[in-house]
């Protein structure tokens, strides 16, 4: 009994230490975002500000381009996600349903593509885009991420678990293959789609590497790229609004994740099928 | 009821690579008939059904529907309905939506089918009303009215099965194809659904093709049973003709509640028939019973009291196991007793030792 609660206590302690290590910079950011300027540079370390300085947020939202960056981030992230789903879902369905000799070869290619880091292809893509003259556009930020091996793999695994009878029933009922994809397969794959959306949105909202290469126009900067401009320019020494801006930029992700977490665990009743 | 042929398979073969699943299958389904495709798993009966449905293409041969070659038409173009073993209901749609879907696919335009905005499509109002009425009617027949707004996940097996039937029923197809529809139900429900299916068959007047591995199911419901063995049609005919004149010893072994006794010449059982030294003799347990003046002698090994009858397991003096059935009032002697068995000579079947095919014995 005692040993059990002891080991429980130890593991809990270690978990807390680990969580603190990861969360500390984040907590410090939140703390700074609410602190008035004079407290930020004080010698003592106080986590809680003496008074809440909302002005940091007002400055970040009104006197800087943060709203523009958020808007850009939204366009890019949603653009990527919509096109990814639009192309990935039918691909994955075809990979499961089409009985061609090349199926295993194609699937092996998808798996191989999973292993190639984006950084390897970044330079060729950059050169290609430069040639096409689409650098410094939204397309430059969206196009490279539309083909996603991870997405195809994820949906394929999900579709291959679905009973084949269901697709046959849809064919007997008169659905074309594309209709089966969007009216039967996709609604049933919503848990997979949610998981995929979280991965995709997080990765591309936070991505700094590619926007740094593809974009020089501040008007098109995504949030992380924008923060860099912000630091370089007018309020480089104004830590309060900078932290407030960083907080605003991370908040949507945290909120989205909390909301989606329920959907994540909810799953989808596979009733109506056998069992 | 006419005897016109609705569906005909002519020399249909199906190969997967070097593997031949169906080998020159000929089946014809008459108007208003109830055909059962009977066979062990892997005999090609499900593939046959899928070829009838248009879900699979034959490698050779023709599929004729009302005299027209439909080999390369889709299931939807053929207007056949199919009920799957796993029910294959759409889990994300309600019962009513599940049943309405085939009608919507047939009668609404691509735009009209879209959820929500489809209502704006011109002329869709009347069609929607018609669909609603048909679904209501089918639900009434199947007793599904209280469940129309439920999702399939909340229904029991029997109810799901009914929804699957309802989805087939609403569209008034030229042919119903059922792939082991009762095999996921418990025994009691299965027997009840059997009667309901027969009633449904009479009510629609459409031909049913029913795949099953359960000979009792096939014999009970069908007016034509097609026994398939190893991708070929072993025999097709009425349940009675299959039982009374099995075309081969494999068919004889498949049909009948109690497995038939097959006596090979080398079993050395005496007193059956003069031809027993050349042919395999088949004798059903229900035609073998204890009799004072019987010509067979065997030791009693087991006796199962089944209520209406007693199933006896015996071993002949030459070591061959024999099943026999005694009346329920038979006074069973203790195991190990030597019993004389009698049989009805005209219920005896003879099969060729080499090919296994039926041999007609002279009277």
From TrEMBL, chain B:
<keyword id="KW-1003">Cell membrane</keyword>
<dbReference type="Pfam" id="PF00005">
    <property type="entry name" value="ABC_tran"/>
</dbReference>
<dbReference type="InterPro" id="IPR008995">
    <property type="entry name" value="Mo/tungstate-bd_C_term_dom"/>
</dbReference>
<dbReference type="GO" id="GO:0005524">
    <property type="term" value="F:ATP binding"/>
</dbReference>
<keyword id="KW-0547">Nucleotide-binding</keyword>
<dbReference type="Pfam" id="PF08402">
    <property type="entry name" value="TOBE_2"/>
</dbReference>
<keyword id="KW-0813">Transport</keyword>
<dbReference type="InterPro" id="IPR003593">
    <property type="entry name" value="AAA+_ATPase"/>
</dbReference>
<keyword id="KW-0472">Membrane</keyword>
<dbReference type="InterPro" id="IPR027417">
    <property type="entry name" value="P-loop_NTPase"/>
</dbReference>
<dbReference type="InterPro" id="IPR017871">
    <property type="entry name" value="ABC_transporter-like_CS"/>
</dbReference>
<keyword id="KW-1278">Translocase</keyword>
<dbReference type="InterPro" id="IPR012340">
    <property type="entry name" value="NA-bd_OB-fold"/>
</dbReference>
<dbReference type="InterPro" id="IPR003439">
    <property type="entry name" value="ABC_transporter-like_ATP-bd"/>
</dbReference>
<feature type="domain" description="ABC transporter">
    <location>
        <begin position="7"/>
        <end position="255"/>
    </location>
</feature>
<dbReference type="InterPro" id="IPR047641">
    <property type="entry name" value="ABC_transpr_MalK/UgpC-like"/>
</dbReference>
<keyword id="KW-0067">ATP-binding</keyword>
<protein>
    <submittedName>
        <fullName>Sugar ABC transporter ATP-binding protein</fullName>
    </submittedName>
</protein>
<dbReference type="InterPro" id="IPR013611">
    <property type="entry name" value="Transp-assoc_OB_typ2"/>
</dbReference>
<comment type="similarity">
    <text>Belongs to the ABC transporter superfamily.</text>
</comment>
């Amino acid at each position: 009994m005692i040993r059990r609660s002891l080991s429980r206590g130890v593991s809990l302690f270690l978990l807390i230490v680990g969580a603190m290590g990861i969360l500390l910079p984040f907590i410090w950011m939140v703390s700074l975002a609410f602190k008035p300027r004079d407290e930020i540079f004080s010698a003592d370390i106080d986590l809680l500000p003496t008074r809440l300085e909302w002005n940091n947020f007002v400055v970040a939202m009104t006197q800087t381009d943060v709203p523009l960056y958020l808007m850009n981030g939204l366009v890019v992230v949603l653009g990527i996600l919509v096109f990814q789903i639009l192309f990935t879902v039918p691909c994955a369905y075809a990979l499961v349903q089409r009985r061609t000799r090349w199926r295993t070869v194609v699937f092996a290619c998808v798996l191989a593509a999973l292993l190639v880091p984006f950084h390897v292809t970044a330079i060729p893509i950059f050169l290609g885009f430069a040639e096409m003259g689409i650098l410094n556009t939204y397309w430059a930020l969206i196009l490279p991420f539309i083909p996603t091996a991870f997405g195809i793999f994820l949906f394929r695994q999900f579709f291959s678990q679905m009973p084949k009878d269901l697709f046959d029933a849809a064919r007997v009922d008169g659905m074309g293959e594309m209709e089966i994809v969007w009216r039967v397969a996709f609604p049933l794959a919503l848990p997979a789609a949610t998981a995929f959306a979280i991965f995709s949105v997080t990765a591309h909202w936070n991505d700094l590497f590619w926007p740094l290469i593809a974009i020089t126009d501040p008007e098109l900067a995504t949030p992380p790229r924008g923060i860099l401009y912000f630091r370089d320019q007018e309020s480089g020494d104004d830590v309060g609004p900078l932290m407030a801006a960083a907080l605003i930029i991370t908040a949507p992700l945290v909120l989205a994740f909390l909301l989606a977490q329920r959907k994540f665990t909810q799953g989808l009743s596979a009733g109506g099928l056998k069992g | 009821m006419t005897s016109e042929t609705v569906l005909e398979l002519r020399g249909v073969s199906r190969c997967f690579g070097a593997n031949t699943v169906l080998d020159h299958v000929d089946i014809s389904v008459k108007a208003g008939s109830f055909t059962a495709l009977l066979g062990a798993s892997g005999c090609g009966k499900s593939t046959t059904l899928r070829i009838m449905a248009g879900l699979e293409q034959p490698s050779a041969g023709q599929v004729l529907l009302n005299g027209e070659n439909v080999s390369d038409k889709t299931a939807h173009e053929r207007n056949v309905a199919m009920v799957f073993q796993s029910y294959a209901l759409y889990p994300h749609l309600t019962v009513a939506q599940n049943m309405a879907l085939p009608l919507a696919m047939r009668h609404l335009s691509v735009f009209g089918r879209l959820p929500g905005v489809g209502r704006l499509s011109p002329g869709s109002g009347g069609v929607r009303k018609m669909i609603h009425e048909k679904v209501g009617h089918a639900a009434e027949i199947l007793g599904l009215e209280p469940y129309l707004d439920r999702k399939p996940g909340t229904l029991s097996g029997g109810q799901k099965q009914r929804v699957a039937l309802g989805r087939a029923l609403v569209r008034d197809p030229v042919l119903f194809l059922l792939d082991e529809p009762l095999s996921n139900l418990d025994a009691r429900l299965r027997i009840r659904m059997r009667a309901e299916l027969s009633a449904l068959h009479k009510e629609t007047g459409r031909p049913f093709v029913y795949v099953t591995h359960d000979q009792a199911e096939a014999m009970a419901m069908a007016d034509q049973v097609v026994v398939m063995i190893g991708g070929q049609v072993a025999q097709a005919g009425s349940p009675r003709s299959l039982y009374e004149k099995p075309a081969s010893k494999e068919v004889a072994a498949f049909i009948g509640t109690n497995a038939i006794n097959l006596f090979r010449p080398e079993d050395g059982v005496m007193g059956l028939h003069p031809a027993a030294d050349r042919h395999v003799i088949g004798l059903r347990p229900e035609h073998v019973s204890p009799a004072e003046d019987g010509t067979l002698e065997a030791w009693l090994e087991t006796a199962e009291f089944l209520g209406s009858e007693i199933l006896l397991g015996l071993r002949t003096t030459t070591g061959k196991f024999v099943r026999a059935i005694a009346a329920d009032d038979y006074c069973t002697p203790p195991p190990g007793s030597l019993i004389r068995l009698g049989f009805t000579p005209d219920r005896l079947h003879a099969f060729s030792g080499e090919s296994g095919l039926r041999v007609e014995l002279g009277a």
